[in-house]
Amino acid sequence: MNATLAGRPSAAKIRVLVVDDSALIRSVLKEIIGSQPDMEVVGVAPDPIVAREMIRKLNPDVLTLDVEMPKMDGLDFLEKLMRLRPMPVVMVSTLTERGSEITMRALELGAVDFVTKPKISISSGMQEYADTIADKIRAAARARIRRQAPAAAPTAAEAESRVLPTLKNPLTSSEKLIIIGASTGGTEAIKEFLMQMPSDCPGILIVQHMPEGFTRSFAQRLDNLCRISVTEAVHGERVLPGHAYLAPGHSHLLLARSGANYMTQLDQGPPVNRHRPSVDVLFRSAASHAGKNAVGVILTGMGKDGAAGMLEMREAGAWNVAQDEASCVVFGMPREAIAVGATHEVGPLKSLPGMVLEHLHRHGGRSLRV
Q1: What domains does the chain contain, in order, with CATH numbers?
Q2: What is the bridge-based pairing of β-strands 243-246 and 229-232?
Q3: What pTM was computed for the model?
Q4: From the centroid of its chain, how far is CA 286?
Q5: Could you tell me the Gene Ontology terms of the biological process aspect for this record (predicted)?
Q6: For all residues of the chain together, what is the average pLDDT?
């Protein structure tokens, strides 16, 4: 795949094309985006057919794209766009089960991120919504975009090289935990990481910045693809080997202890670093309750959520890795964690599962006590 990196002079505005079949939504998005000092709406389109011509003429930096539109389905348009003319795309999604499933597929096809449809009738939260859209467009404008090539079946040698060994002593794996945090670009990064986890791996807790209504679809999609079980976390369940627990979009996910067992804990406290769920909240709880039994993993994402918590994990004895810049969609979160000295190693996404499992091979017999 060919990689291109969106870039522009620092003084230039981010040029955005809005594509949505609703005239009202187009108007709202145009007003929100146009009010940002570093952005301008260069055009609006009611469907992908019109958008296709406008992309050729206007050459926008970022596209906002409705997931369900007439004349051409949003997914069909996105697939063609990312194959023929890759560019940063932020999907505008509905808060429905179908909308969340389509959004997960759009992220697989190469969309950088997504926002939900604005609730026009609720003006009190519009400023927060506007800030969210603006942040996601800024991240998309800086994102590393890769041309989507048709998937080719791996050769026998490639398939063999991707098979990772199971843990040498599964009985000790329950004493260990893998703690993962991600944001922009994280859905695909988490998928790639978890698909390489063996069925006897330690329990995994995950925070991916994602709104309520989408985390369940994401967990179900992962569960269908991985050898381990992946579920949306619920409050008070025991953390088991071979299982991954994804923070629901409405709550912080924390690690807790009940006797010798690790447990999940959900909390609907205020956002941390503007996020709920927050990576820092999960990482800090892992530092407190798992210490040296934890392995921290910070993946692609915008902002700095997770850096401070990962440093606390390292200070408590955890071993931490970060995704490298070349393989990140947005290098913000890993960069911040590296900058504060929270990580032990940095590597490309495809290598991180092996690095983590190798560490667990070497340190699988430690006591649960911290």
Answers
A1: 3-146 (3.40.50.2300), 164-363 (3.40.50.180)
A2: parallel
A3: 0.88
A4: 20
A5: chemotaxis
A6: 88
